Amino acid sequence: MGRCGVVDGGDAARWLQLNAPRGGPDELSLLVSRAAPAVGATEMVVYLADYTQSSLVPLLGPGLTRDELVIETTLAGRAFTSLEVQRAPDRPDRLWVPLLLGCERLGVLEVVSPEAGGSALERPAWEVAVNVAQLLVNRRLYGDVVERIRRRLPMQVAAEIVWGLLPPLTFATDDLVITAILEPCYDVGGDIFDYALNGDVLSVGLFDTCGHGIKASAMASLVVSAYRNARRTGLDLVDTATSIDRWVRSEHPGTFATALLAELDRRTGLLRIINAGHPGAMLLRDGKAIRALPGPTMLPLGLGNLSERRPRVHEEALHPGDRILAYTDGITDARGDNGERFGLDRLVDFVERALNDRLPSPETMRRLVRAVLAYQQDQLDDDATALFLEWQPPHLPLSHLERLTGSDGRERPGPVAASGV
């Protein structure tokens, strides 16, 4: 407890940072518990979201007992989904704080304290939670405790390969948010995505490889590695697509991968896309899906030898606040008991309702996949992946405003789509 009864989280945060490197990941729970008195708490317990993001699982040390909590029906789950601190009216001695690294949701921190009912503890608890999230990410690489806690079922090797290659599911800056979700978590093989922000350009790749199981995940590994290699070599979008296509033909002849390759200039909102035989992406504005972006601009990756045309790039001038929804066919092709597909209309309706409910983007993606799973009785026939990209610049250069509206203030149409193979 700080002076004049003011709780200060700085000491606890600094203590955690100084002492974490001295222990392994298995000691994180004990370390967090030992930091509790520094913020006037009697206990602090870490809960991690499982891979399906349906449960919060306690990371327990000696002397602690806690039950697994369901995200949909608990206050801890509400803290996770809303990204806001939650208090229980019937338990004034505790509060739940989201564990966030940037916008990546890891779980929640339970703080038990006689001060939990007031507002004095909220900021210190946030400080501690931010540091705990950093420690979880930094220290989990040195052991398996975090991975074991998050897994409620055995993970297949194909899924192990894919999850080991994925970037964080959510990334955000002041003007960008990108978030994605992937199912089935324990047996995924063919879907994979990647992104990178270099200067003012955000590069995004969403891939769906041919087949299932270990062969599909091996191909996914090659595709995303070839994508990263081309990007880091400095190739433009067309040459990147061409390079991946050649690698697929070389190492997996007779197979293919569909893909969306995109680059967004975050200064101007200019989005450039190559669609390699992939389901289209949707452009959403003011909470509504206004149109699908053009379909294939090249053949699927691995079939480039069947066409003499170079990949074509579609350009779209985004408006501030625009969102792009991309997905693999495992979303729209999911079938209910009556054989009816989940379909694009149902997908668009779901996302529009989520936007109107002002859900955080990661929560929109989580609920979308839960809805797809429920529609198919939790038995997906194919990988289901969705990706959400939002552009919300705090300031726009005048030249871009002029390009969008013109000098007379009227909206101008975007660039003509480049389509066809």
From TrEMBL:
Matches recorded under SUPFAM superfamilies: PP2C-like
Taxonomic superkingdom: Bacteria
Domain PPM-type phosphatase residues, every copy: 141-391
Organism this protein belongs to: Micromonospora robiginosa
Compositionally biased residues, Basic and acidic residues: 400-413
TM stretches of this protein: none
Keywords: Hydrolase
EC code(s) of this entry: 3.1.3.16
MF-aspect GO terms: protein serine/threonine phosphatase activity
UniProt xrefs under Gene3D superfamilies: PPM-type phosphatase domain
Primary enzyme class: hydrolase
Cited InterPro entries: Bact_Sigma-Reg, PPM-type-like_dom_sf, PPM-type_phosphatase-like_dom
Keyword Cytoplasm: no
Protein name: PP2C family protein-serine/threonine phosphatase
UniProt-annotated stretches for the region Disordered: 400-421
